Amino acid sequence: MDLIAVAWPYWHQFFFIIFAAAAIGFGFGVLLSKNVVRMAFYLVLSLGSTAGLFFLAGAEFVGAMQLMIYVGGTLVLLIFGVMLTAQKDFINMDTHTQDWILATIVGGSLLMILLFGAFGAEDWNTPQNLEDAQIQATKEATPIGLALTGIRVDSLGDSKDAVEEGKSGYLMPFIIVSIHLLVVLIGAAYMARTKKLSHATDDKSSRAKLMLFKMEQEPERLEEETYVVTHRGKSALNPLEQSDENE
Amino acid sequence: MAEFVDYILNLDDSWFSYLVGALVAAVLILHVVAVGALLFIWMERKISGRIQDRLGPTRVGGKFGWLQTLADGIKLIAKEDLTPDLADKFLFKIAPYVGLAASYAAFIALPFADGVVGQHVNTAVFFVLAVLGLEVFSVILAGYASGSKWSLFGAMREAAQVVSYEVPLGMCVVVPVLICGTMNLTTIANMQAGYFTNWLVFNDPFTFLTAIIYFTCATAGVNRAPFDLAEAESELVAGFHTEYSGLRWSLFFMAEYSSMFVVSALASILFFGGPHGPIPIADILSFLSIDQLGNPDVQAFDETAGGFFSSVNLQVIIARLLGVGNLLFKGIIGVTVMMWIRWTFPRLRIDQVMTMCLKYCVPLAAVGFLGATAWQALDLPTANSLLGSPRYHHHELWTHGLEHQQGSENASSEASDDETPHAEDKTVKADEVFANTVPVSVVKGGER
After folding, report:
1. Residues B144, B199 share a domain
2. Same domain, B70 and B103
3. Which ipTM score applies to this complex?
4. Is B91 in the same domain as B72?
């Protein structure tokens, strides 16, 4: 038992490697796949593995948030969009050489910036002592929630002036963001509604309008139609007449 | 469990013990899922039969046909595993597993009793909802990958329905979270300990309303009749699983029945007392409390050293077993009600489903949310306080905690500048404050 324990002293490491490998692998899957829906599926798995990394780090709230917002919400919308818009020509994406070159330049430079940022910050360096790497499993999301409602647990000792100026809580930015989102939602609903009003009308009224239009345009044809209907009605009532006509 | 394996094998936080602990929990949960599906499918047949004035299965396995599902399973295994020509083969094959994995993963954070939980998650409510929301992926993937118009239409309906019903569902779930001041399902369940008047559904009229709307939206969320448009036989053949056969087809049903159980169990934890029965039998049996590990506080659940074996005590074991029994019983009752609804109500049309969600469920959920908030803010009496029994009042609890903490916070912030120990100090102090304030609020509740 000791041998196994020496090889992988901490279970965090073991699962970190699994989740990280899954995230990277499915990320490559997104890159290399040519089918749009499959790309979306790989993206789901990649983001899900990232959520797993968050759970491993003890950030349960952020992990669940990742699942809820990215994996659950955005990707359902993405798949909706892809499935409703992707027709024969777009369902398979053939990447040309120039696309690859451009993507490598942009993505590579972004990766370099991120790597410099990640390894440049001193606090983020790998812990010298492995015991530091152990995560406290009992941290709660309550301070974040309280801070969003205006009470910051970590700065309760602030002077009264700072509290009155509203510096201690995140209530103000939270409200601004939420009102902004509300405005966006109302705007989207308004735009969707105006579009709809111009096209669709009430069922009955449109049928009545169609009838009026027909009566104005082709009165003779309309009469013909009514004649046909009444004639058929008569014939249905009187089967003898029908048989006579046929002869 | 991992701590227990560590203790037995004398390891120090090794990955091996964690893996063993996780496997034990996973296998136990797998049994809940599989045996649950076995039971629920038999129940569905039996209940539908009785409602339609038939007998249902009677022969397989002696009386009542209780082995009918097993016979069905053998038949399904023997069936050919078909894949249509037009299908996206990879996605077609993987879609059922995605759904089963999602509804299985929701069980991880679901506490069956105080401390009997796969993994203790502080934001368990949120986690369960987030994971259950992933189940729609399997339906969308199955619908797309089948290469059939019936499947695609079914998947589209399902996706639209689930996405829109998540809004009122989330609003309903917020109400117990708000009253209890935590997203921790274990804590929410423990706050409803005692007699059944302490259950949140009886807290005030608005929570009662919220509980009903939650159950309606949960029924729609797991795609059950009368909201089962995705598999409307009369118009869409079988919806998203038209092209599936054999074992893959049965995996969809396993996912459906297990997620039915998850939402019912979640309803029972949030509103109906969870693992606590209508009468606190475990408290009445407190004379059995034989303390073996020198732990005087038998009711307290130790979050950090959690797990079944952290405190071996007869009363605790009885309380936990009763809790598991209670929760399973309540979950099965919820599933039974869903079946009852399925076989008595006609299926809604797609526009009626959307009307139900947007015109009725969302406004009612909003009314319930605002009303419950106002009830807490105005400190109106709850059912329990009217009967004169004490109640944990958590609105007070949080504010008290913060007031106390303000005093202690100054000392700790001066003591250390480093980031991590600082945070640890805080959590410890918060717990102390939490423990101190409970008696205060109990006294206050008793006065009212």
Report:
1. yes
2. no
3. 0.71
4. no
CA distance B368 to A76: 28
Q: What residues of B are in contact with residue A76 (Cβ under 8 Å)?
A: 136-137, 140, 159, 163
Measured CA to CA, the distance from residue A61 to residue B127 in angstroms comes to 8
Q: How far apart are CA B365 and CA A81, in angstroms?
A: 29
Total count of domains within chain B: 3
Q: Which amino acid is at B252?
A: F
Closest chain A residue to B147 measured between Cα atoms? A83
**Residue A25 banded pLDDT, cuts 50, 70, 90:** very high
pLDDT band, residue B46 (cuts 50/70/90): confident
Structurally, chain A folds into a number of domains equal to: 3
Looking at the fold, whether B311 and B325 belong to one and the same domain comes out as yes
Handedness of CA A141, A147, A150, A156 (dihedral sign): positive
pLDDT of amino acid B286: 57
Contacts A156 to B, Cβ<8 Å: 402, 405-406, 409
Q: B137-185 pLDDT, tens per residue?
A: 888 888 878 877 788 778 878 877 887 888 888 889 988 888 887 788 8
pTM of the model: 0.71
B430: domain range? 394-447
- Among A113, A137, A161, give the residue marking a domain's end: A137
Print the domain residue range for A52. Answer: 2-137
Alpha-carbon gap, residue B241 to B253, rounded angstroms: 10
Q: Are residues A26 and A131 in the same domain?
A: yes
Contact across the interface for A67 and B131, Cβ inside 8 Å: yes
Residue A27 C-alpha, separation from nearest chain B C-alpha, in angstroms: 17
